[in-house]
Amino acid sequence: MTIDWNQIDTVLLDMDGTLLDRHFDDHFWLEHVPKRYAAKNGIPLDTAKKSLYAQFRSQERTLNWTDLDYWSDRLGLDIPLLKLEVEHLIAVHPGVVEFLLFLRQHAKEIWLVTNAHGKTLDIKMRKTRIGPYFTGIVSAHEVGLPKEDVAFWGMLRKTVPYDPARTMLGEDSETNLGTAEAYGISHLIYVSRYSSTVHPLPSERFASIHYFNQLIPSPDTSSVSLNP
Fold it and tell me: Is 168 buried (19+), middle (13-18) or exposed (0-12) by CB count in 10 A?
């Protein structure tokens, strides 16, 4: 696959696992929340994990999955406050700032498009300071649909005036890339190194990168080649 930047006007970028290391989110939901939930309810950690993991799975591919208010109410915990306890784990992936600067220098529209809840966005933008690089930031909670729904990408155009044929989407979710493809977005990039703690595996369906600086062409060209 070849990415020709002369053919792209708008770049849509996911946040967790794509621009930011998903180690924070995985640790928070799989370890930190169960630890606090077990302590609050006086139950063994393994029991807490079994209960919580089932509850989390029940809300996959819905807006509740990332709704901090929903989980605060359901679990009886202050989820935004608990995030602050481990915010030192929030980190930007290598190559991201370099890529965002490249996009800015070439006058591309850059939109952060995420399923993340507004309160999560506030914490992560304050911690990482990458917010000013974007033309705008859109949460699926504002759109009213998760990115797993094909209709999301049409609804998004009410906020982001993009041409699907001249738009690139960077994601660590093959599901979300699939819905974007079904809608008609042309340039799709899978981020295989979504967490610093996992061994990256390329997608069999979408062009894959480990780091976003792989999309920056050399000075004498406007394109880069990727596999597949």
Answer: buried
Amino acid at 36: R
pLDDT, one tens digit per residue, over 193-208 is: 999 999 999 999 999 9
User: What's the predicted TM-score (pTM) here?
Assistant: 0.95
CB-based contacts of 150, cutoff 8 Å, min separation 6? 179, 182, 183
Q: What is the DSSP letter of 93?
A: P
Confidence of residue 228 (pLDDT cuts 50, 70, 90): low
92/89 Cα distance (integer angstroms)? 10
- Please name the fold of domain 2-21+91-225: Rossmann fold (3.40.50)
Q: Max CA-CA distance within the chain?
A: 63
What span, in angstroms and rounded, lies between the C-alpha atoms of 38 and 51? 10
Environment class of 57 (CB within 10 Å of its CB; exposed 0-12, middle 13-18, buried 19+): exposed
Question: How long a stretch of residues is the chain?
Answer: 228
What percent of the chain is predicted at pLDDT more than 70?
99
Contact yes or no for 207/227 (Cβ under 8 A): yes
Residue ranges of domains in the chain:
2-21+91-225, 24-88
